[in-house]
Amino acid sequence: MGGFSELAKQAMLQPQEEMLAKKNKKNSVYIGIPKETSFQEKRIALTPFSVSLLVNNGHQVLIESGAGLAANFSDQHYSEQGAKIVYHTQEVYQADIILKIAPPTLEEVEMMKEHQIIFSALQMATLKKELVLALLEKKITALAFEYLRDDGNVLTIMRAMSEIVGATSVLIAAEYLSNVYGGKGLMLGGVTGVPPTEIVILGAGTVGEYAARTAIGLGAQVKVFDSSLFKLRRLQNNIGHRVFTSVMQPNVLEKAITTCDVAIGAIRAAHGRSPCVVSEETVAKMKPNSVIIDVSIDQGGCFETSEITNHKHPVFRKHGVIHYCVPNIASRVSRTATYAFTNIFTPILLDIGEMGGIMNLIWEKPGIRNAVYVYQGAMTNNDLAQRFDLPYKDLNLLVFGNR
What we know:
The protein is of the alpha/beta class. Helix content is 37%, strand content 14%. Helix 8 (156-177) packs antiparallel against helix 13 (334-354).
């Protein structure tokens, strides 16, 4: 493989995309990808070879100059695969479909056309009413990729990002256990004749599962806590390895936290704030230079001592314990995250073309319908409607009523 170019190697990582290429096209899709302006957002929605696949199927892709640099994709990589590189953000927003990672800002909505389509994150916790009203006024159709479901009814983007975050959180913990970052000077996992490091994982969801997989692979001793027996049993079966599991018994949890080397918080809330299950008093009893990775910090965190940090200043110490509380951990491995995004978005964009437009796709696929929160200027997300006191319209009635 020494003679393969970097882009050729990338193509080999995406076999499912190559299988999606079809000759007969029913509709041309005009896609715009702006450069991310959100703080420390380094991901991009499509790789160059995904762009090539779309262009070869008769679609147009407009990319703002520099949009892929943070994920190590240059403008040349994209232009060689058929994308048109533009140098003014306003030009990108002339496309019919806008594809981005971070939620749109008010300034970006102002650049959008009426009846435009946008795929992005929603991030309901930080969403402002002014932004929603601007989308409604322009009769935008907006889809939140957090709510995209695949044919197996799985939140496909959230699953992919959770897998990345779970594995990466353990690797981050390994860094901060070392002397280089002022840690204990431990190797995560240990070696023959040396007791393994102890890792406590709070939450048995996807993040917890992939954190456990990675920690076990490195040789660490793992303990997993969750309030759901079903999730604990599922994690045990999925990883195929017997690990210590327990429900949230306060005494058992406190003992595990105060004796471990690393604690990873990965408890998610269906709505609102994540539950805070570890008190400051318990954190104060942890061993000096232990490490806390609070993955749930974007929902408030599950350690009482957690405070939001960023990639430039990722850690702080409290009670002698190293806290890592960066909310967008997946941006730390932006290239891998981009591959995950592109494998999900590319088939959707191809389907839009094959089915003759986004409206037909929404009608055909309930997983896509689930992601729509504004449809042609109507609020179709009941949670948002109640939060901002806006009139709610059932998307099923809007879509099927016109059939």
